[in-house]
Amino acid sequence: MTTIPASAPLSAATRRSIVLLSLATFASMAAQRICDAMLPELARVFAVSLGQAALVVSVFAVTYGVAQLFYGPLGDRFGKFRIVTFATLGCCVGSVAATLATSLDMLVWARLLMALGAAALIPLTMAWVGDTVPSDQLQEMLTRTGLGSTLGIVGGQLAGGLLTDALGWRWAFAFLTLLFGVVGLLLWGDWRRQQAAPAEPVEPVEPALAAAAPQGERPGFVKQALLIITGPWSRVVLLMALVEGAVGFGVLAIWASHLHRSLGLSLSLAGAIVALFGLGGVMYMAVGRHMIHRFGQQKLVLLGGLLVGLCALVLAFTPHWLPAVPASLLAGFGFFMFHNTMQANATQMAPGARGTAVSLFASSLFLGQSVGVVVAASLIAQIGTGAVVALGGAVMAVEGVFFAWALRRRDARRAG
């Protein structure tokens, strides 16, 4: 097989496909977050407790995490863009079911169906970009799809709250139905165009994977996963994803509660301040191209980790809420400096089984997030919310230093 030349410019068709995939990642994250603000209304409408209403969030999250493991092999075998297209259309069906739900149980089942589709969109988008984009433009293009998912976090929360307050909770799912339907049809048209176009050159299969399938046969998922997990660099990336999920996304879940408890802020104001974390991510995605070329991967993870650590300290111990505003914004900026670099390395762990590799990366990130929430919650009673927030930031800073060292060591070995 031939490789994509490092200097090859992206075609207009490829750029259009990346835009459509960015819309799919937006829809995936919007679906994940759209129920956050509507839980009290669902509890009222269905006459259940808030904890029971929260099943529409927790069932989605668990299903989303488990399904990650299955989509990687499916994408490697049947085509990543094809799976993303059909998964998006499947989310549209799930959204219709949610819109028409007449009981909480029906809504939970509809959310499960939506999660089964939404789980494919982000990891397989990353893997498809890794297959298609030259290596010197890969991280920059991942900022485009990352911008879609980051905006989806903010957009989903806003749409869920605004539509529920103004028109009712069903309209939030009607919005998702329209979104997934339009994006799915656009992806379908683009996939058909790709099928009719000449085949693009792809990167060679990783030597270990090639050896496992000497006659062009692809090894099974378990064998692929073992080959990836046992790779020295893959282990580093997956471990970093586990820690990043725990101290980044996981500890982030208690930031609003900390501001509420320590500073006496309303939950609305505390939530608005923490939402600036996502806006900081959007800011990084907007300028990511220039920062990638200026700093390179080693400095991005180092500076990003240190920035998150510093901002977490400010947020943990500030006596007034005003410093928490820039701290949350800059923490998001620094976190996505780190996270975008992690994504780029995840797509390069195993070019011959990129879908499986990125699915393992996403699962590690999700597992870390789940562990981080549990550990953070258990530590609050022992050391308080401020110490937990500060500890999470400190670990993130140490991770930035370590991963920068690991990248430098890897690059030195390749140069040697």
Question: What does this entry look like structurally?
Answer:
This protein has 416 residues and is mostly helical. The chain has 16 helices and no strands. Helix 4 runs parallel beside helix 6.
Mean pLDDT: 81
Secondary structure: number of strands:
0
Output the radius of gyration. 21 Å
Ranges where pLDDT stays below 50 over 5 or more residues in a row are 1-5, 201-216
Q: What is the succession of H and E elements?
A: HHHHHHHHHHHHHHHH
Protein structure class: mainly alpha
The profile of the biggest β sheet is: none
Helical content (DSSP H or I, runs of 4+): over 70%
Please state the oligomeric state of the protein chains shown: single chain
Number of helices: 16
What is the CA-CA span between the terminal residues?
25 Å
Strand-residue proportion: under 5%
Shape: globular
Short description:
By secondary structure, the protein is mainly alpha-helical. It is built from 16 helices and no strands.
Topology:
Elements: H1 12-33, H2 39-46, H3 50-53, H4 55-78, H5 80-99, H6 104-132, H7 138-166, H8 169-196, H9 207-212, H10 221-229, H11 232-252, H12 255-263, H13 267-317, H14 324-347, H15 354-383, H16 385-415
Key words describing this protein structure:
mainly alpha, 416 residues, disordered N terminus, 16 helices
